[in-house]
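Sync notes, pocket subgroup
Present: LS, DG
LS reminded everyone that the earlier model was apo-only. Rerun requested with S-adenosylmethionine included. Inputs:
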Amino acid sequence: MDATIVSKLQKHYPVLLKEIISVISPQHGGTFIDCTFGQGGYSKKILDFKNTNVIALDRDIESGKIANRLKEKFKDRFIFKNIKFSQLNNLKLKNVNIRGIIFDLGYSFTQIKDPQKGLSFNASGKLNMQLGLNSYSAEDAINKLDEKELERIFKFFGDEKEAKYIARNIIKERSKNKIDTKGLVEIIDKSKKRKNFKVHNATKVFQALRIFVNKEISELIFGLINAVKVLKKGGVLGVVTFHSLEDRIVKYFFKSLSENKSISRYSPFVKQADILFNLIQKKPITPSDEEISKNPPSRSAKFRYVIKKTDFYNFETDIEEQFRNYIEIENYGDKL
Ligand SMILES: C[S@@+](CC[C@H](N)C(=O)[O-])C[C@H]1O[C@@H](n2cnc3c(N)ncnc32)[C@H](O)[C@@H]1O
């Protein structure tokens, strides 16, 4: 669940804004990449500092409308690209001194309110969940994947204990009718033996489907790898996550490249080039009580960051191996 979205006042709050600004320090000027432009909360704040430039990305073309307003105000200090952040190394940035790259994962308030996107279990009509630039929808997944594949999606991306029964009941139901949002919620309700009165029964399955449809795990992994390829020495790479799987990936990536695992007690050589990051703070930064009270969903936000230590771009990482399981599940979508 994303903190930048539903708040008490139903307005957009850029999560952990103060903390992020203090880490990336735009008061010194420079070029920053906002990988998840959304409503432009971070981009606007950075551009308020003189001598800054922002390159903003978002896979949702709707963000382009807000970006156009920023473009009018900040002219050539601001560029917006409707691309997925896993593609950020395709931007021609070789000679640009990128001082900071920020990701604020997930979806925004306007996206969840958009009935066309069908992100919410309260939406009526067709299942969708595509944030933009997708190849398949939740409707394709629910109506075409096999039982085992659906079960694995719900289990691995939603931590849904009753994944097996839900998947089985989907297969039964879809042989009679095409399943839409309401139909899926009814199947989940029927399948769950243990009811949770605090959280909606469909929460975990909907989160899992959204991750699958948008290939969020592969996006994050390749987004991080490619971010490092464009970040310059001394630059900051920061990520705000909203669930434990995302946080595990970011934590692993940052930690594994901040220490030299190949150093042996007996080795006379230290491969300094492999130590890519300075990990200043091991624990994530989380929202203050004040922020949580203004914007309750921000309570699940975690911000981690590193500073790039070298001008080294052809680094090695085993992050794909570590999370191969999840990438393989997202790849079920290739046949849809
Ligand atoms: C939580 S919102 C960001 C809000 C933003 N920080 C602000 O203050 O307005 C996340 C945004 O990231 C976008 N997004 C999610 N995954 C993406 C990806 N792989 N590539 C590009 N944009 C992505 C979504 O479309 C959404 O607009």
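DG: Residues 216-230 form the longest helix (15 residues).
LS: The radius of gyration is 21 Å.
Action: DG to write up.
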